[in-house]
Design goal:
Elements: H1 2-27, E1 42-48, E2 51-59, E3 71-77, E4 82-89, E5 94-100, E6 105-106, E7 112-114, E8 118-121, E9 124-127, E10 140-144, E11 148-150, H2 167-215
Antiparallel strand pairs: 1-2, 2-5, 3-4, 3-10, 6-7, 8-9, 10-11
C-alpha cells in the first residue's frame, strides 16, 4: 500500500510539473538586445576646398525597440590620446552628415582657418605636436550610439587640388626639399664631371709626352 501511495504522489507531481514546464518554454523569448546593431554604418575622410572633413552615415537596426540612446558620437584614439566628436541625433534610426576633422576650422564663408598639427606663430604657419596632431597618424575610430561599431578612418591625403595643411607652409617645405635634392644631385654630377675631365687631361698629358719621346 505504501509503495502504491508513493507512486501516486510522484505521478501527481509529474502531472503538475508538466504544464508549468510547458508554460515556461512558451513564455521564453530571446533577448532583443542581442539583435541591436549598427550594421551598415560607415565613415570616411575627405578633403574639400583645402579642408579635412569626416563624412558619415549611421544606420541602427533596433527590431526590439530596446535602444537606450539615439545620440551618435565618433570616438577617435591612437592608444594614448582620444577625442569624442558629436555627430547628432538619429531620426528613424538613421543619421548622415559631415563634420570637421578634429583640429580643423573654417570661417563663416567656409574657408580653412586651421588644420590639425599646425599653428600660427608670428604670422607664420608652423607644425606643432598640439592641436590634435596625433589624429594625422595611425588611429582607431568607433561610432557609438547604444551599440557601437568600429570604422576604418585616417587623415585624408593631400592632392594637387586639395591641401590638408596651410598651402604656403606646405609649398615652402616642398620647395626647400626639392632644392636640397637638386643641390645634392648637381653636386654629385659636378664631382663626376670634374673627375672625368681630370682623367681625360691626365691621359692627354701622358700621350703628348710619349709623342715627344718618339720624335727624339
Amino acid at each position: 500500500m505504501l509503495k502504491k501511495s508513493l507512486s501516486a504522489v510522484a505521478l501527481a507531481g509529474a502531472l503538475i510539473a508538466m504544464p508549468m514546464a510547458a508554460n515556461a518554454a512558451e513564455s521564453y523569448t530571446p533577448n532583443p538586445q542581442s539583435d541591436l546593431s549598427l550594421a551598415g554604418t560607415v565613415a570616411a575622410s575627405e578633403c574639400l576646398g583645402d579642408v579635412p572633413w569626416i563624412s558619415y552615415k549611421v544606420s541602427m537596426d533596433d527590431p526590439g525597440d530596446v535602444a537606450t540612446s539615439s545620440t551618435a558620437v565618433l570616438v577617435m584614439s591612437d592608444g594614448a590620446n582620444s577625442v569624442t566628436v558629436p555627430l547628432g541625433e538619429l531620426v528613424d534610426d538613421s543619421l548622415s552628415g559631415r563634420v570637421l576633422w578634429p583640429g580643423a576650422s573654417i570661417d563663416a564663408a567656409g574657408n580653412p582657418t586651421g588644420w590639425p598639427g599646425w599653428a600660427q606663430q608670428d604670422g607664420a604657419w608652423v607644425e606643432t605636436t598640439g592641436n590634435f596632431a596625433w589624429t594625422r597618424g595611425e588611429i582607431s575610430a568607433v561610432i557609438v550610439v547604444d551599440p557601437e561599431i568600429g570604422v576604418p578612418l585616417s587623415y585624408p591625403q593631400a592632392t594637387p587640388e586639395c591641401a590638408t595643411g596651410p598651402r604656403g607652409a606646405v609649398a615652402a617645405a616642398t620647395e626647400d626639399e626639392a632644392a636640397l635634392a637638386m643641390t645634392g644631385t648637381d653636386a654629385a654630377a659636378l664631382s663626376i664631371a670634374l673627375g672625368a675631365a681630370g682623367t681625360l687631361l691626365a691621359g692627354g698629358v701622358v700621350l703628348l709626352a710619349r709623342r715627344r719621346s718618339a720624335q727624339r
